[in-house]
Amino acid sequence: MRHTVCAEVQDLIHLPGPLTEDAVLRTLHARFFNREYFTNVGPILLSVNPYQDVGNPLTLSSAHAASRCPQLLRVVHEAVRQQSETGYPQAIILSGESGSGKTYSSMLLLRQLFDVAGGGPETDAFKHLAAAFTVLRSLGSAKTANNSESSRIGHFIEVQVTDGALYRTKIHCYFLDQTRVIRLLPNEKNYHIFYQMLAGLTQEERAQLSLAGYSLHNLCYLNQGDVSQNETEDASRFEAWKSCLSVLGIPSMDVVR
């Protein structure tokens, strides 16, 4: 019975009895095993990453799970409402440990924001933003000891909404983990794009880039740490990356040079 009561508490400020660390952890534990991964703490929404397979979660266009997250939808609605009523900028801040699900949650929030104020996923604005995130994912994400899709770059996403309608989105990137390029820890990898390039470049492209005959094992910045590779998946992601650059009007060879 106690487990059921804890699982039904949707906002920790309404916890019965003393508000202790043990009570909070017990409630989050009960809700987690009840498949309730979002819990309010007043105006703050706390999310516990269930580490479930959700397909390809880190691309904006595939964030189909957004419709199953009413808690995040309420955050979006409240931000749009506050901005519309007050005229003041609103901020949604995602904070947590590596692997806590910040990038995935940001994809869901943006998808829902486009559904609420941006005309949905069929608009050119959405397609360009989705393409931009796919490009940035390869350039700024890497495998770490705790997270195979760890974002090693900070994002500030500026969305301009007027009269309840989204009309401009800008992505600012900060704090790229530059040391990862030249020095890797055991069981970690360099940025995804390097492995994807080696798997996906044609022989002609390899020759143009002076990469003919090279592999992970004879490139000093890639033969450290985890040297395993799923070439089929990396090649597929490289093709998707090039397609997204094309959507943005950027020649892929201009980037890989």
Automatic annotation (TrEMBL):
* InterPro entries, alphabetized: Kinesin_motor_dom_sf, Myosin_head_motor_dom-like, P-loop_NTPase
Q: Which residues form the Myosin motor domain?
A: 8-257
Keyword terms of this UniProt record: Actin-binding, ATP-binding, Motor protein, Myosin, Nucleotide-binding
SUPFAM superfamilies linked? P-loop containing nucleoside triphosphate hydrolases
Q: Extract one GO molecular function annotation from the record.
A: ATP binding
* Record-level GO cellular component terms: cytoplasm; membrane; myosin complex
Q: Summarize where ATP binds, as residue positions.
A: 96-103
Would the keyword ATP-binding turn up in this protein's UniProt record?
Answer: yes
Q: Which Pfam families match?
A: Myosin_head
Task: Write down the superkingdom of origin.
Answer: Eukaryota
- Gene Ontology BP, a term: actin filament organization
Name the PANTHER family for this protein.
DACHS, ISOFORM E, MYOSIN
Q: What family is this?
A: Belongs to the TRAFAC class myosin-kinesin ATPase superfamily. Myosin family.
Q: What is this protein called?
A: Myosin IB heavy chain
Q: Which lineage ranks, top first, belong to the organism behind this chain? A: Eukaryota, Metazoa, Ecdysozoa, Arthropoda, Chelicerata
